[in-house]
Every structure is written in C-alpha cells, then in structure tokens.
Write a structure and sequence with these properties.
Blueprint lengths: L2 H14 L1 H32 L2 H12 L5 H4 L8 H17 L10 H29 L5 H51 L15 H14 L3 H19 L2 H7 L7 H45 L5 H29 L5 H29 L2 H14 L2 H16 L8
Helix pairs in contact: 1-11, 2-3, 2-6, 2-7, 3-6, 5-6, 5-7, 6-13, 7-11, 7-12, 8-13, 9-11, 9-12, 9-13, 11-12, 11-14, 11-15, 12-13
C-alpha cells in the first residue's frame, strides 16, 4: 500500500466517523463567523472613531483572555464537555445581539466588552473541544483530526474575512454580528448531535487555584509534553517577530502595503496543505521530529525571504505556512493523547497559553526592531536563531528512539 493510499484511508476513516465529522463541521461553522467578525470589528471601530489604535485594540481584546487559559480551562473539566460546548455557542450568540445597538463612539465599550467575553468563551470552548475530540476519536487518528482542524481553521481565514467584509459593506457591523450569531447557533446544533459517552466529572476536592496548578504541574512535569510546548511557544515568539517585518518586506519588493494580503493568502494555503498530510507525517516521524522539521522549514524560509524577489517571497510564504503549524499540531495532539481525561481541559488551556501568548511579545519586539535595524539582515538572523531551536527536539527524539530500542515497554509514547 502506497503512502498516499494510507494517508487517504486515514483521512477517510476520520471523516467517516459521525462524531468526528460533526465536530469538524461545528468548528468550520463557528470559525467562519469568528473570522468574519475578527476583521469586521476593526473596520467597524475605524469607521466610528477614525482611530487606528482603537481598531487594533479589537484584536487585543479578543486575544487577551488567552492569558487566563490555565484558570478558564478548569471549567472544561468541571462540566460535561458536550453540554459545555452547546452552552458556549448559544451564550455568545445571545451576546452578539447586544452589538445591534452599537451605532456611535460612546457605545464602543459594549463592543469591547462583548469581544472580551467572546474571547474568554473561545478559550474554554477550545479546551472542551480538545477533550471531546480525544474521547470521540481513536488515539491513532488524533493527528489526522488535528491536521484537518488546522486545514479547516486556515481555510476559514482565507474565506471568512472576504465574506465579512462584503456583509459589512452591505449591512454594516450589525449584519456581521447577526451572521456570527447564526453560525454559533448552527454550531450548537451540531454539537448537540454528537454521540459520545462522557462520565460525570468527579466532585472537586480542592479550590480553583489548586485545580489550576494541578494541570500546570502535569504539563510541565511530563517529559514528552514539556519540550513540545516550549518549542511551540518559541515558534510563536519568532512568528510574532517575523510578522512584524512583513510590511518592510512588502516595501522592499516595491509594492503597496496591500500586497501583504497576497503573502498571507499564500501562507494560509501552505497551512491548509500541511493539515492534510500531518496525520501521516506524525505516524511516520513522531511528534518531536515532525515539529522539528516544521521549525527547520520555517527558519530557512524566513532567512531566504530576505532575497528581494516576488517569486521567492511567495514561495517562502507558502513554506512558512506549511512549517509553522507542524509544532502546534504536534504539541496539541500529544496533549490530547497523553493527558488523562479529568485533566484534559486544564492541560490543553495551559498549553495553549504557553504556546500562543509569546506571539504578542514577538509582535511588540519585532515592531521595535524593524524601526532601528535593516529588515534583510534581521530576517537572516531570525531564521538562523530559529534554526538553532530545533536541536533540542532532534536530540530528544534521538534519545527517545534509543530508549524504545532498549526497552519498548518503558518508553514514553510521546
């Protein structure tokens, strides 16, 4: 059987699973509305106030609850995940209706409040969804499911903003809010159709702080998960640094700032493609080698992006899009596979915070560096430094392989 046939059969097996197909469909539907609102909210604020700073604050408001992930993730371990996901889709749908009254600058506080609550609900929903997937999908197919999830999310990022912009142009911000609310209601209906047996969560025997710390301790003390999460956080730190340089790259190519949209679109296409092959790659390489290969590919592409050529820039964008999700898929798949069900919500949310929070720091540092340093040498340095960060993963992967040869029964499968 060829590798392509094996990969196709694995993907087909995931999609033939009724519950897996429903979970993916819910993710696509809700992700479509979220991506549409993400773009439209900034445009909405810009139109009402004329302020670029306030428009950018929309993204920060949506992202900020990620910092509370370890605490918010405990909710996903206290309630049955299916019920929680239904509630976390219906509640934001109701919240979004409050945006119908945002028609002047003095009511923008309402928009920012809804965006913050929306972001908090998304953090809990991601943790609950990860736990529900781990319960509904066979362990050997979790990598394929994670790859399809990446493909779905990145695909929505390509399509939904255009739809959101069109709806906003025709009906304004309230129209986009109604569209997003409708997608959440549809997603809630899809989650309601999932058939999965969930045990009742055990009664809490400790306080919120202790339960939160329990998830963090498990993650940081696990020899297989810790290096992957650290690699993911480092990757997102450098992704932020690289993202801050994008407009300097566009200017160096002699294009208007809008050309960045073309580079991002090509990058998204690369991420969509890698999501389709990630399951097979994880089975062949293992989480650490798969993550290391993705980081290495991204590092080379970032450095080569210093070449002032349109074709090179487009190829590098596609390579960055293909390499960047590898460590994220590897880390989150390992978390799903290695974490006990009772801790999955907390551990997933904590891992997401450690992985994604450094991105904001990278954006801030990159914005400062690109103002004082030439962007081409900066790209080469960023690529070389990122390349060095893969060495611990390769070393750990080699050590794990030797351990498996010596004692298969004692080797950690992560």
């Amino acid at each position: 059987m060829t590798k392509t046939t094996k990969k196709t059969r694995a993907l087909a097996r995931v999609l033939r699973s009724r519950d897996a197909a429903l979970l993916l469909s819910a993710l696509v539907v809700s992700g479509f509305g979220s991506s549409a609102l993400w773009l439209a909210s900034g445009v909405w604020v810009k139109d009402l106030t004329g302020s670029n700073g306030l428009a950018a604050l929309c993204v920060l408001t949506l992202w900020a609850p990620t910092l509370l992930g370890p605490v918010l993730g405990t909710l996903a371990d206290r309630i049955r995940r299916k019920r929680l996901l239904i509630a976390l889709n219906l509640a934001p749908a109701g919240l979004l209706l409050a945006l119908l009254g945002v028609d002047s600058p003095d009511r923008l506080w309402l928009l920012f409040a809804v965006l913050f609550l929306y972001g908090a609900a998304s953090v809990v929903a991601h943790a609950a969804e990860s736990a529900l997937v781990a319960a509904a999908v066979a362990p050997e197919l979790l990598g394929d499911m994670g790859g399809l999830r990446t493909t779905a999310v990145e695909g929505m990022k390509l399509l939904a903003p255009l739809t959101g912009a069109g709806v906003y142009a025709a009906y304004g911000g309230p129209g986009v809010a109604l569209l997003d609310a409708a997608t959440f209601v549809c997603a809630a209906g899809l989650y309601a159709c999932v058939r999965v047996r969930e045990a009742r969560p055990a009664p809490a025997v400790s306080g919120l702080r202790a339960r939160t710390a329990e998830g963090a301790r498990f993650l940081w003390g696990h020899p297989g998960l810790r290096p992957l999460v650290v690699a993911g956080g480092t990757t997102m730190l450098f992704a932020g640094l690289n993202g801050a340089v994008i407009y300097a790259v566009v200017e160096g190519l002699g294009h208007f700032p809008g050309y960045a949209g073309a580079l991002y679109a090509v990058q998204g296409a690369g991420s969509v493609a890698v999501g389709l092959v990630s399951g097979a790659a994880l089975r062949r390489l293992g989480e650490r080698r798969f993550a290391a290969c993705g980081i290495a590919l991204t590092a080379v592409a970032v450095a080569v992006r210093a070449v002032p050529s349109d074709p090179v820039a487009l190829v590098c964008s596609a390579a960055i899009g293909a390499g960047l999700p590898c460590v994220l898929i590897a880390a989150l798949t390992a978390v799903q596979r290695e974490t006990p069900d009772a801790l999955t919500g907390r551990v997933t949310a904590t891992a997401a915070t450690l992985i994604y929070a450094p991105n904001a720091l990278g954006l801030a540092l990159g914005a400062g560096l690109v103002e004082v340093l030439p962007y081409r040498p900066l790209l080469v340095v960023l690529g070389l430094v990122r390349l060095v960060t893969v060495l611990p993963l390769f070393q750990r992967a080699a050590s794990a392989s030797r351990t498996i040869v010596r004692s298969p029964s004692d080797a950690n499968p992560a």
